[in-house]
Amino acid sequence: MRPSAQGAPEAEAAAQARVPAQPRAVDVDRAGNADRARTRGAGEPVATARGEHTHGEPPPPRPRPLVQRSSVRGQILDALRTALVTGELRPGEVYSGPALGERFGVSATPVREAMQQLALEGAVEVVPNRGFRVVERGDRELAELAEVRALIEVPVWLRLARTVPAERWAQLRPLAEAAVRAASAGCPATYAEADRAFHRAVLALAGNDQLVHIAGDLHRRAQWPPAGVLAARGRADLIADAHEHTALLDALIAGDQDLVRTLVGEHFTGAR
């Protein structure tokens, strides 16, 4: 990624696949007209002006774009979120829509739309006539996020520990193991998604969609590196965090309420 203000070298991790360019409407129309002309019967008159058709024949449907704007915006949003977690989008730096669009091979519009979503999530702030600045967050904000997450999630975990049967907890084993594999691979972005997936599955057992949504948003925000951190979390930290999931799952399956209470408290005390 290239910051528009300073021109730092681009990293390759945020865009593993380029977003395909959308076809121009005029090109699609010409191709469609040509195909229709080839398939007409020998005695059927051919319309020479755009929009003409024989009486009783419905107008041909307009071809759909190969990639819809919402799909492009979603892909860009995912890539930008990955860049936030890995630290490629650095706190305090300003990034312009056109520069990021060039990086992803798309226009500035879907990039700006994705950045507006990140602004709503608190990840970036608008800088008039320049672009978007990645928000700088300190240790205090991280501590506040951890405290709020604990206030919301810990009571739910403890309640679920008393009410959910062991066989249901065992069904979450693949998610916990996937988090361990992601941590072992050392990719912060991959682990961040696996981490959220495990927590999301646990909270979903409460049957409260609003809880899952709010807790997930807090969790995502807690994963962004703070100001002054030049690199994302190291492999050892990721592995230790992932093994907390498996230890918790073992305690939940065993029905050890005291151990669950201890492990949940420790997990959210150092939550990131």
Which SSEs are present, and which pair or pack?
Blueprint: H1 25-38, H2 69-86, E1 94-95, H3 97-104, H4 108-120, E2 124-127, E3 131-134, H5 139-163, H6 166-170, H7 173-185, H8 188-204, H9 209-222, H10 235-254, H11 257-269
Any overview of this molecule?
This protein has a three-stranded antiparallel β-sheet with strand order 1-3-2. The protein has 272 residues and is mostly helical. It is elongated. The two termini are 24 Å apart. Helix content is 59%, strand content 4%.
Distance between the termini: 24 Å
How big is the Rg? 25 Å
* Total count of helical runs of at least 4 residues: 11
Main sheet specs: 3 strands, antiparallel
What is the compact description of this entry?
Helices cover 59% and strands 4% of the residues. The protein is built from eleven helices and three strands, in the order ααβααββααααααα.
Features:
single chain; 272 residues; mainly alpha; three-stranded antiparallel β-sheet; 11 helices; disordered N terminus
